[in-house]
Recover the amino acids of this structure.
């Protein structure tokens, strides 16, 4: 029963409630408009400023040593696997609903230790001694019980009591019984009065629920957390108009292993509001531990002053449920006088579910509504690219009344979106607009092992491989589902008007979002051996003629199943592979050329 589960959770939990949030204050002289005493908002409001620049070492070294020494199921972020057949069978039912292995979560400690995945230099940094008080807001709707509790414990355990005013658990009208009285009982028995539960009577969705929590907050600073994370070290950058977000480590939803994300990237969106990782700009590569400008936030965790959050209009409450709010806030920060920074010395592990039954139960398809709303308010003349990508989808959905968000933009005297394109993501048009500048190869990808078969992605969703199907009669310009390009970014992708879209990834040869990070999605076509090669893994696109499937196999120039013909091959471009096409960061090009030469030596 649930009560037995609850008792077992309490047994494995450890009431050792220590640790910290470290607040980084960016050297304020780097902000040209900053006054040492005050900073004005767009409405003329005066923000309090830092009065003392005395620093101290906020690390709790005893607790860090204690965490590192812990052993047991899931400790230090290690994977945990179910072995009992009854447990595995029971977990299958949980997974169908939750999209994660809930029984794994139940069997590892609620306050488990997590690995320190920060760059080593972070351990030597001291931070300001006097810091504003913070309200942490964790919103949830039908979250899995032990996942929710572990999120709260990880925050409490790593937050100095003198900084945390309160932690608000805002329940967005969950339908699970255990998220009411049983949750209230657990919180009352295991946390002090700073942890508070707020139950909303009606479903608001993530966007409005966060705003509701923010209105109730009493801290100067708001820290928003998803309900399925584990916090490590959380430096928060504070100046009046800066919003910060951590580097997100990978939290496996199946075995709950925490893996570090070695961040040398920046998160951006394209003109249809899809997220991509691009390499950092060269000027931000030298000091990887320093906070760096981030064009777009993931939205799962971020920190901002409460007064500034509401001064810039908080979220557009015309957005429904979730998704799109992180684009709106990111754009608003950059165009309306603020900025968004990613802090590599801050780490939070975020669970990305395989699926969510509760999301499928949403009454409307809210994402297209939200995306069109954001684009209509902020994209200016660039809106044409948003509609051109999918006219049917984007023009038929109702964006709602845009009066309020447009008034907010006008009142804040925000810059045009052209500023974002030219200064915040200066390579945005290069990466995400039309592909008429050239390709290394294009058209059908035809198997040499069986010339009647070509790659075909019809009906294949992301995360699946294309299949082998009878070739179209026109190999140079075949039907859309057989039309591929080896483009100027050296990606093997579906042909489309934009650089955006789906690319084949070398690991498994599955279709995923094009990410522009020159590793798993980088391909070379050797027109002599007819192989499509990924130099990073030294694997080649390989056909299985019997099953009509493709896979990644170590390259072997004698294997006929690795031989492919293109409808069109630009041999001049391929012969100048390291200089033609879009240029990567110099180190990336050097690494690629070295790997290419090694493979073909």
């Amino acid at each position: 029963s649930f009560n037995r589960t609850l008792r077992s959770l309490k047994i494995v939990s450890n009431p050792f409630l220590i640790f910290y949030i470290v607040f980084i204050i960016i050297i304020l002289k780097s902000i040209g408009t900053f006054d040492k005493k005050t900073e004005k908002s767009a409405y003329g409001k005066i923000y309090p400023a830092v009065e003392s620049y005395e620093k101290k070492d906020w690390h709790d070294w005893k607790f860090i040593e204690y965490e590192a020494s812990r052993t047991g199921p899931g400790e230090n972020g290690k994977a945990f696997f179910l072995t009992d057949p009854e447990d595995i069978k029971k977990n299958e039912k949980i997974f169908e609903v939750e999209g994660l292995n809930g029984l794994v979560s139940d069997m590892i400690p609620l306050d488990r230790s997590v690995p320190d995945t920060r760059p080593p230099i972070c351990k030597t940094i001291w931070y300001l001694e006097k810091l504003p008080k913070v309200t942490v807001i964790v919103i949830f709707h039908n979250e899995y019980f032990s996942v929710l509790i572990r999120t709260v414990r990880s925050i409490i355990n790593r937050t100095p009591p003198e900084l945390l005013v309160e932690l608000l658990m805002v329940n967005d009208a969950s339908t699970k019984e255990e998220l009411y009285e049983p949750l209230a009982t657990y919180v009352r028995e295991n946390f002090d009065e700073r942890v508070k539960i707020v139950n909303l009577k009606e479903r608001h969705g993530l966007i409005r629920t966060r705003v509701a929590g923010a209105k109730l907050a009493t801290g100067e600073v708001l820290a928003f957390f998803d309900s399925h994370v584990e916090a490590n070290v959380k430096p928060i950058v504070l100046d009046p108009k800066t919003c910060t977000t951590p580097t997100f480590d990978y939290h496996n939803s199946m075995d709950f292993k925490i893996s570090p994300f070695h961040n040398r990237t920046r998160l951006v969106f394209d003109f249809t509001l899809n997220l991509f990782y691009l390499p950092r700009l060269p000027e931000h590569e030298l000091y990887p531990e320093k906070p760096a400008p981030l064009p777009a936030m993931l939205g799962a965790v971020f920190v901002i002053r409460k007064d500034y959050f509401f001064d810039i209009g908080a979220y557009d409450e015309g957005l429904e449920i979730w998704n799109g709010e992180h684009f709106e806030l990111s754009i608003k920060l950059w165009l309306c006088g603020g900025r968004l920074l990613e802090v590599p010395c801050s780490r939070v592990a975020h669970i990305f579910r395989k699926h969510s039954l509760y999301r499928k139960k949403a009454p409307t398809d809210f994402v297209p509504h939200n995306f069109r709303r954001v684009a209509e308010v902020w994209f200016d003349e660039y809106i044409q690219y948003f509609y051109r990508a999918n006219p049917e989808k984007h023009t038929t959905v109702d964006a709602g009344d845009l009066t309020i968000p447009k008034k907010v933009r006008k009142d804040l005297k925000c810059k045009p979106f052209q500023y974002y394109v030219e200064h915040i993501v200066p390579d945005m048009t290069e990466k995400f607009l039309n592909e008429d500048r050239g390709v290394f190869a294009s058209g059908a990808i035809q198997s040499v092992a069986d010339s009647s078969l070509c790659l075909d992605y019809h009906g294949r969703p992301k995360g699946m491989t294309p299949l082998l199907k009878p070739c179209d009669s026109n190999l140079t310009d075949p039907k859309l589902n057989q039309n591929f390009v080896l483009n100027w970014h050296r990606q093997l992708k579906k042909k489309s008007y934009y650089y955006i879209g789906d690319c084949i990834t070398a690991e498994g040869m599955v279709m995923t979002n094009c990410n522009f990070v020159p590793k798993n999605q980088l391909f070379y076509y050797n027109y002599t051996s007819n192989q499509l090669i990924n130099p990073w893994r030294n694997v080649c696109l390989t056909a299985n003629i019997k099953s009509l499937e493709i896979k990644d196999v170590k390259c072997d120039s004698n294997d006929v199943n690795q031989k492919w013909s293109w409808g069109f091959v630009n041999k001049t471009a391929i012969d100048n592979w390291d200089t033609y096409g879009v240029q990567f960061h110099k180190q990336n090009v050097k690494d690629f050329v070295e790997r290419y030469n090694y493979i073909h030596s």
In short: The first strand starts at residue 23 and ends at 24.
